[in-house]
Amino acid sequence: MFQQIKAAKERLYGQAHITPIITSATLDQQFADASFFFKCENLQRVGAFKFRGAFNAIARLTEWEKERGVLAFSSGNHAQAIACVGQLLNVATTIVMPENAPTTKLQATRAYGAEVITYNPQTETRESVADAILRRRGLTLIPPFDHESVIAGQGTVACELLEAVPNLNAIIVPCGGGGLLSGIAVAAKNINPDCQIIGVEPELADDATRSFYAGRLQATTNPATIADGVRTSSLGDLTFPLILRYVDQMITVSETAIKEAVRFLFYRMKMVVEPSGAIPLAAILSGRFTPQGNIGLIVSGGNIDGPTMCQILSEPDETSIDQSKASVEPSKNKTNVNESLDEPWQAMQN
């Protein structure tokens, strides 16, 4: 798999943005034994890391498969990524999305030219809806996480992070279906075997954590977490074994902690981050993970709609960090930072 990740890195060059790595003086002051490095995939194309896996997967299709078109199912970020890449590579895309997907994600997916088919997650599964469409149309399915090319594309996040900050002691990664976590874990353990890989998910969607510690696949149904990007029923047949082999620890965080992390990122680091992308920071602020050394945090996405953000920002902040000391700095590791910082602003113009 690591060879596939390295090939994906070459394939993505000039297509995916090299997202910036920033630090927080506030966090560093609060945790004397740790320094934090945020890998900002919220500033990736389509506003999430999903562009990496989508581009790698579609770019590797045969010409016949590209002509037939592709199908994907997603609550939002994978949907937008597939639609965007389809537009870039002139491949027709059909996306199955839940009716309650964030409005911004539905609108963005349609804006990229995809045909969006919605379903009721209370009465249907996205897999069953997608299967029916596949049988009728003969499209190529690109699932959101359980796909080798998708996993390889997501693993390039770790390659960039460890090139810029090679001496990381741990990387904390959000986990839904495990595509990002497994890709990062494979890449990081091959680059720096001593780097600990920590997966984090909401308490209300704890199937991956239960699976990790039970050693067998567990599932959940329609988890009611605010972190819509990780509302998956279970890990996949490909991602689960990789997580068992390469991930060191799985932990969960509360809905309150996730919201506090979103507020911290907004008010104190001036970043718009969706709840799923704030999960790694939630593990730090809530004390579920005790950091020591250099800690990488994967900010996986920034696609949050206005009403949800307003709701989160209107609630009281229960963190103990002194806001008067808040500040944001470029990465302490100056290598590669200057060239990275220009990339996201180009993404915002696309």
Summarize the model shown.
With 350 residues, the chain is of the alpha/beta class. It has helices spanning 2-12, 25-30, 50-59, 63-68, 77-89, 103-111, 126-137, 148-164, 179-191, 207-214, 239-246, 255-267, 275-285, 306-314, 337-349; strands at residues 21-24, 34-40, 70-73, 93-98, 115-119, 140-141, 170-174, 196-202, 249-253, 293-299, 328-330.
Helix content: 40-55%
Question: What is the CA-CA span between the terminal residues?
Answer: 31 Å
User: How many structural domains can be distinguished in the coordinates?
Assistant: 2
DSSP, total strands: 11
- Number of discrete helical segments: 15
- The average pLDDT value, as a whole number, equals 89
Strand content: 15-25%
The ordered H/E elements are: HEHEHHEHEHEHEHEHEHHEHHEHEH
The main sheet orders its strands as 9-8-7-10-2-1-11
What is the name of the CATH topology of the largest domain? Rossmann fold
CATH architecture of the largest domain: 3-Layer(aba) Sandwich
Radius of gyration: 19 Å
**Which stretches of 5+ consecutive residues score pLDDT under 50?**
322-350
Which CATH C-level class of the largest domain is it? Answer: Alpha Beta
Main pleated-sheet profile: 7 strands, mixed
Shape category: globular
Structural class: alpha/beta
